[in-house]
Amino acid sequence: MKGWFVTGTDTEIGKTCVSAGMVHLLGQQGWRVAAVKPLAAGQAQDVEGRWFNEDVRLLHAAQSAGLSEAEVGPLQFRAACAPHIAARIEDRPIEREWLVSQVRATAARADLSVVEGVGGFRVPLCEGWDTADLAHDLGLPVVLVVGLRLGCINHAALTAEAVRARGLTLAGWVANTLEAPLPHLGDNLSALQTVLGAPCWGHVPRLHPPTAAAVAAHLNPDAVPVRL
User: Fold this and answer.
1) What does the pLDDT read at residue 181?
2) In what pathway does it function (predicted)?
């Protein structure tokens, strides 16, 4: 596989928006990009009564490889909770080999893949397997989305440490602005650069709405290397 695994310092810190922005940016550069969210928990019904996951739909809209929503999100649960809990509630076990094979099959249809994890880097999926193992199974370099809030330096440093402990490369990181502005922003960004020891791929401000194109405009195309 060629591409990146996108993880975050926590849940709800903008992984999907950044992933969609990466897909859009790479598409502008002429690459056919597959966007994949292997697991998604939390579905709603649209006006036609169809169940959908908002993150999967956003990634599907950004991709350029002609994928279906089912290929972008091969395993979707209705309950908005940790995936291993949703799997138990719905009696749909998360199967490691099946899920990895689905991601690889989808990735094979494109030049590059942006695979978004769920929650943070070490979310349990089934017994003896978590999202860090998923990233390792796929063998992709990791991009870390840092939600800019108090405590983010510690969360980012711990996540980077965990990524490298799995033998994976931290390819880069993206700073994402959350609801409340982070005081001493410049000092915090400087500290993040020091502790992460990887290139910053961009700083995304608060966007209304946070479309893939809007996010892509705040990613540095020269910092997102495509060396295949």
Assistant:
1) 83
2) Cofactor biosynthesis; biotin biosynthesis; biotin from 7,8-diaminononanoate: step 1/2
For the annotated catalytic residues, the residue numbers are 37
The closest alpha carbon to 94, from 130, 56, 52, 44, belongs to 130
pLDDT average, residue stretch 102-112:
96
Is 147 marked as a binding-site residue?
no
Query: Is 221 part of any known ligand binding site?
Result: no
- Helix or strand or coil: residue 35? strand
Residue identified by tokens 């840092």 is 146
- For residue 40 the two structure tokens come to 């998604």
pLDDT band at 198 (very low <50, low <70, confident <90, very high): very high
Quote the tokens at residue 102.
């689905």
6 Cβ neighbours under 8 A, 6+ residues apart: 15, 18, 19, 22, 114, 115, 116, 117, 142, 143, 145
* Segment 81-97, tens digit of pLDDT: 999 999 999 999 999 99
**Better-predicted residue by pLDDT, 168 or 49:** 168
What separation in angstroms does the CA of 182 have from each of 8, 13, 149, 159, 160?
17, 13, 6, 20, 21
Estimate to the nearest angstrom the gap between the alpha carbon of 85 and the chain centroid: 20
Measuring CA to CA, which residue among 186, 197, 194, 204 is closest to residue 146? 204
Query: Measured between alpha carbons, how far is 160 from 154 in angstroms, rounded to an integer?
Result: 10
Please name each of the domains of the chain with its CATH number. Answer: 3-216 (3.40.50.300)
Could you give the count of Cα atoms lying within 13 Å of 125 in the half-sphere of its Cβ? 24
**Annotation-wise, does 215 bind a ligand?**
no
Q: Is 95 annotated as a binding residue?
A: no
Is the pLDDT confidence value at 227 over 80?
A: no
